[in-house]
Design goal:
four-stranded parallel β-sheet, Rossmann fold, alpha/beta, Glyco_trans_4-like_N
Amino acid sequence: MDLCADALLAHLPAEIEAVEAAPAFRRYLGRWQPSSRWAFNADRFWNRYVVLPRQVRRLSRQVDAVHIVDHSYAHLVHAVPYGRAGVYCHDIDIFRCLLPLSEETPRRRLLLTRLARWILTGLRRAALVFTNSRQTAEELLARGWVQPDRLHVVPLGVAPEYMEIHLENESFLQYENQPYILHVGSTIARKRIDVLLAVFAQVRQRWKNMRLIQAGGEWTGEQREQLRRLGLEGAVQQVRGLSRRELAALYRKAAVLLFPSAAEGFGLPVLEALACGTAVVASDLPALREVGGAAACYCPPGDIRAFVTAVCQVLSEPDTLVRREQRRSQAQRFHWSVHARQIAEAYQQLLK
């Protein structure tokens, strides 16, 4: 969530003085076992749940309010005097383990469930809760996790790199001279990478030279097996650690952004792709419709046949300047300056 923090700090009104609390990651067990995954996770736990709350508690004595830019850190609200903390909630993923089993919750683990409860108590204690979409707000309200008078819908913005119209050097691409479908984001279960790969395999039967580029994730063992089973290993490239300019270049040259998620709180890649003028085929989710409006194409989540049909239609039709401008126009409705102003106004009202 560095993007959200950086954009907020850059666009806050001049009369707001803000300081960032982002301590460097400290190694404890990792000093002696630098290659140990267990040691890294233990250090991460200690940093997040012990070191950071101590720093926030000290800092809260010097400021009027504390804004937490990621709800997975909502436990920090407990370190702030009552009524002076706000939390930005991006989605409810971290709380799904607390939902009834009938709501298709992930497998429950005792430690993760207890941490989720502790984080949720922090969210419920916050004086202000901001969400990126009406859909996320409705989910919080429906479960009674947040009171309506504390809730503010404040959509994210789009970074300027995605609004530029020139093409960046793309020499880092393996398939820079071949058409490709793009997916941006992680490869966790709700992203439905299984659908992404199944759709791409069928599309490639018609467009033999089509490639798939996945940006930002890392294949799981099951996903690698699906790639092997579908014979796609030589047609797929995965890239990570890209700058925003490099990612913008990927969007601009992509034939289409394919985004088959089962659940989303906002869907920032949809907004970024539209800002670049790129066609979008996404799951028909309320949050994604809030972002994409009429500028994107939507399919029922998990419906491989519908996705294949939609992608093939996009690839078959010429991408005109008018269509690209319509997509950019939709993206221009989202501004980081508006995001920052709305958050600032909520705190000013709180502190009156």
